[in-house]
Design brief:
Layout: E1 2-6, E2 15-19, E3 25-26, E4 40-43, E5 84-101, E6 117-124, E7 129-133, E8 141-160, E9 168-175
Antiparallel strand pairs: 1-2, 3-9, 4-5, 5-8, 5-9, 6-7, 6-8
């Protein structure tokens, strides 16, 4: 087992990561996703400008108690047919998602600017589906499912907890 120290500019602390020689990793990570490389994130709705583009949710930034240029996220319009898709550009085998919802809500903020998606469905390129629920928290939320070979993951049937803004700050998909 190898020991690595990750130092990230803008974060207040160091994070110790213990990794083996395995290729198990966040297969959705792409800090430069807007340049045409894979993976890519797309959506049927983006509020305003690139500050709320789908690719922001796969850039590796997990700071989520806010929004805007300093805390980019996927921020869609308020509508009932939303989808958010990560295309890996090749077949991968995955078994979990880790999601940070945009959390500009009490008790983390003075006002409830945001809500969160309380439930949804993950669809895979072979047509299979996995339902999930999320909680009102700024913490990472882990969604486990049986190992799945897929070329993409699409989050559909997203149901907001309240009629406020909802968004994903970061979506990690783990596998090989």
């Amino acid at each position: 087992m190898k020991k690595f120290i990750l130092i990230s500019i803008g974060l207040l602390s160091l994070v110790n990561i213990y990794a083996s020689d395995s290729t198990y990793r966040n297969v959705a990570l792409n800090p430069k996703a807007g340049d045409g490389s894979y993976p890519q994130a797309t959506t049927n709705s983006q509020y305003n400008d690139t500050t709320f583009a789908a690719n922001n949710a796969i850039n590796g930034q997990t700071s989520n108690i806010g929004y805007g240029k300093t805390m980019p996220s996927w921020g869609p319009h308020k509508r009932n047919d939303l989808w958010f898709k990560i295309d890996f550009g090749k077949e991968v085998e995955i078994d979990k998602a880790i999601i940070w919802v945009r959390a500009k809500f009490k008790p983390f903020a003075k006002i409830d600017h945001d809500s969160y998606f309380k439930s949804g469905v993950m669809e895979f390129s072979d047509g299979s589906k996995h339902s999930f629920t999320l909680d009102r928290t700024a913490d990472a939320q882990e969604l486990k499912f049986p190992k799945q070979k897929t070329k993409w993951v699409k989050f559909t049937k997203l149901v907001p907890n309240k009629n406020l803004w909802c968004g994903f700050t970061e979506v990690q998909i783990w596998g090989e």
